[in-house]
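Project standup — Tuesday

K.O.: blocked on the structure for the chain from last sprint. Re-posting the sequence here as requested.
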Amino acid sequence: MKNKLKILMIGPSPTALGGISSVINTYEQNNLFTGEIEYLSSYKSSNLFFMLFYFNIFLIKLLFKLIFNRDIKIIHIQASQNGSFCRKTIVFYLSKLFAKKVILHIHSDSFDSFYSNSNYVIKKIIISVLKGSDLILALSEIWQDKINKIAPNTNIIVLHNPVNIKECNHKKSEKCNILFMGRLGKRKGIYDIIKAAKYIKSPNIVINIYGDGDITKFKNFVTDNNLQDRIKINGWVSGTEKEKVFKDSNVLILPSYNEGLPISILEAMAYGLPVISTPVGGIPEAVINDVNGFLIQAGDFEALAEKIDVLAGNKQLAQTMGQESYRIAKEKFDTNVIISQLSGIYMELLK
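H.V.: unblocked you, prediction finished:
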């Protein structure tokens, strides 16, 4: 007998780019969406007309499930900021109209700025959604505190992003492959990486940049700075190609200015890589300075170059830090651990 659907999770299409879609893909790969839990996509990146059409079709599907499936008890909403939050506000009020419990799962890298920069009406709506949710899931303790400052006395707990743990093979090649993976832009510190490349002293270092964005613009920027031998800018990778990139890398760098809890860091840790990043968002809960990598201040490209030189020049340290990354990932972020925590959350709300 088929289990009755009790939980409906809502978020972007698993084929979309970005952190939430990566999380959904991880859940899907680990068979979360079977029996009592189902996933319903509300967004797919395209032109404005198609996105509006896609969202309207989603609303029809959602209404159909809310009207005809009385067994649904929980609506688990995966949300970010700006347009994502506005779309999910409609989902929230529809869910409450049908007396469903709502979990609001916030993945934003700057939700506090989104709130503070909104007008009076939008702020009231944000607070209404936060306070009206039965439970808010934050990606880290710092985001738990930030959301609580916006809407005090709300029910907020931390649920880290999950990652599939891979076989840990530490790199022994003579060349030191430095990896950046994410959207190419100022927020992720891409300009600081290009600046840092000029200060790196170690030979045999190649910085491989993978991600989406204006690839041509940054290739030209690298050429203008005469760094094309040291920096290779590539496009977005996924699947087996992405796995190969991690296996061929020695260190991950992510000198971000704002973050939630970056999937690229968790993935790098799952492959046993040391990480050089910044103490923003939930990163300090994954990267412990001098243990499994280094934390530098955002914008300090000279420090970034220095730490790259440290790991490139001390292979034993890089290996030790990589082993610590793997250990922390397995203990805190392994998909089995996170799904177990999520299952406990569902059970508690279903009581």
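K.O.: great, moving the ticket to review. The longest strand covers residues 37-43. Residues 7-162+335-350 form a domain with the Rossmann fold fold (CATH 3.40.50.2000).
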